[in-house]
Amino acid sequence: MTDNVVKAGVKVTLNFSLKLENGDIVDTTFDKKPAVFEMGDGNLPEAFEKLILGMSSGQRSEFNVRPEDGFGQHNPNNVQQIPRTQFGDDVLLEPGLLISFADAGQNELPGMVVEYDDQNVTIDFNHPLAGRALLFEAEIVQIDPVD
Hints:
It comes from Oleiphilus messinensis. By secondary structure, this protein is mainly beta. The protein has 2 domains: 10-71 and 130-145, Chitinase A, domain 3, CATH 3.10.50.40; 76-124, Thrombin, subunit H, CATH 2.40.10. It is built from 1 helix and 9 strands, in the order βββαββββββ. 11% of the residues are buried.
């Protein structure tokens, strides 16, 4: 067992919720199995890891997360017009539809359909929570040394 404080080199078991400013829940583990991750492994965004640093087992806290500290500001350069001909006839386009694209390095790049017509499809490659202030609630369930 460690000294029971969240720090680098520990495995953290936690319950969390992520809410929009209006209280709508984006994601939560409070009603299911807690999340387990190693600090620094990339499973929890770095900005959120910084918020729970120093918390102890059993502690529960809420944090206001500004857009620039969460998923970044919405970047209008990440909204692209793509010719409708680039999409197969079998693709049923609708606003809000997430489509997976490949970037120049062949990495998966999700984009959301904003609007479309017969000529173009407008795709937003920003994270869906970009530009949004969030409320992050975390409850540390357990802290263990990394195996």
